[in-house]
Design brief:
alpha/beta, Rossmann fold, 265 residues
Amino acid sequence: MLHYKTHAHSQSAPWVVFIHGAGGNSSIWYKQVRAFNAHFNLLLVDLRGHGRSPGVSEKAQKYSFEAIASDVLEVLDHLQIAKAHFVGVSLGTIVIRQLAEMQPGRVSSMVMAGAIAKLDFRGKFFVGLGRLFKNILPFMWLYKLFAIVIMPRSNHAESRNFFIREAQKLARKEFLRWYKLTGQLTPLLRRFEAVLPDIPTLYVMGRQDHMFLPTVTDMVARTKAATLEVVEQCGHVVTIEQAQRFNEAAIRFLTGQQGTRISID
């Protein structure tokens, strides 16, 4: 089972489950725990092979987004959490979408930070480049390259450095297992795009998230249940770069006070 942490709220019934991105772990939510725990019970998980969760041999079980979502559901079952709100960042948003597709009745709502809705030409190019060199170059070279491409500006340095530092804790074999998942991204995202969920969803994106904001904006415009908030002077990892603004927007949404579509500036 995945390693997890819980933070109970003495007078609150709803649960919020936090899903980190590839290369990170549950410690990425260090700027969210106190603010969210003032309103909700919290569950933070380390995805397989990340943080304190063990990896799984590919021979024993193929790595797939469905298998990773099933890992999270196993923890929910263990804790007898029938339904929860889900908060994800970066690749964690894809895990949440996969989980919502598999068991929509378990998902009250979704908050997607730095969401990945579609790979543009640049994304496909760099994923393909990594696939070409992943068995030749040290994996941290590739990870640092991707971190710089996705988070290139000086004001992205805190989140960029955090992800690089935490990714260094991964074993090379684990990195390669996760990297193989990139081959599933394009068909998976196409399927998600074709069947948009009828689950209340808040997307919180940085205005400087140049690779992913345009496609998320387009998707939200076609999704009745989705709301988009854009944070100025912010890149991909809004949960770190603009934590207070993210927390306010997400908690307002989760407590049913989100109102109309607005931008935070």
